[in-house]
Amino acid sequence: MKHIGIIGGTFDPIHFGHLRIAQIALEEHNLDEIVFIPSGNPPHKLDKEITDGKHRLEMVQLAVKDNPNFIVSDYEIYQSKVTYTIDTIKEMEACYEEGTKFYFIIGADAFLEMDSWRNLEYFFKMVDLIVLSRSYYKTSKVEDKIKEYSKQFDCNIQTVYAKTLNVSATVIRKLVGWNKSIKYLVPDEVEEYIKKYKLYHKEDSE
């Protein structure tokens, strides 16, 4: 039986923090693969400007190309409608053989906002959750939320405490807008892609 991790996000742009989180989850939970899914039209960011999906997809593909355990799905990018996580999970389930175990990887901040997600009960039936949290970051709130969801949905939620790189896509976009270097924040290929297509040459907000 395969064990597949799923990590979604705008990846605008993808950076070493994202990659480190995925690697930690892969190792800590003995996963076979991590699937990166750049978001298409996420409902929580409809009022915010996001870089064209084709650029974000290409940057993710460049960032993970040397890791055989990391793959990329373009499913959400090519959806014209608003994309919900539950629909993406269903699509992933259809792409793998029966019996595959799925783990959804999420940061602590996003985990604490999951009450607004669509059809949580069904979501927790389809996946186990891996919450990535810094040892000092909202620990008690995360633990309380895990207890709440475990009782309400009878679900499996695991926590990985890890000091991941303190990198922000918002800061990266601003640095580019200020003509500052982003070296060592993103893979070299991603940095070159951003330069080639002149992405983020004005300040964005997340």
Question: What's the structural blueprint in terms of helices and strands?
Answer:
Layout: E1 3-9, H1 16-28, E2 33-38, H2 53-64, E3 70-72, H3 85-95, E4 101-107, H4 108-111, H5 120-126, E5 128-133, H6 139-153, E6 157-161, H7 169-177, H8 188-196
Parallel strand pairs: 1-2, 1-4, 2-3, 4-5, 5-6
Features:
206 residues, Rossmann fold, 6 strands, single chain, alpha/beta
Short summary:
This protein has a single domain (about 5-165), classed as Rossmann fold (3-Layer(aba) Sandwich), CATH 3.40.50. Helix content is about 40%, strand content about 15%.
Describe this structure in words.
It is built from eight helices and six strands, in the order βαβαβαβααβαβαα. With 206 residues, it is of the alpha/beta class. It has one domain: HUPs (Rossmann fold, 3-Layer(aba) Sandwich). The chain has a six-stranded parallel sheet with strand order 3-2-1-4-5-6, sandwiched between helices. The longest helix has 15 residues. The radius of gyration is 17 Å and the shape is globular. The model has no long low-confidence stretch (mean pLDDT 90).
Q: Spans with pLDDT under 50 lasting ≥5 residues? A: none
Shape: globular
CATH fold annotation: Rossmann fold
Which CATH class?
Alpha Beta
Helix content range: 25-40%
CATH architecture descriptor text: 3-Layer(aba) Sandwich
* Number of structurally distinct domains: 1
Which superfamily, in CATH terms, is the homologous superfamily? Answer: HUPs
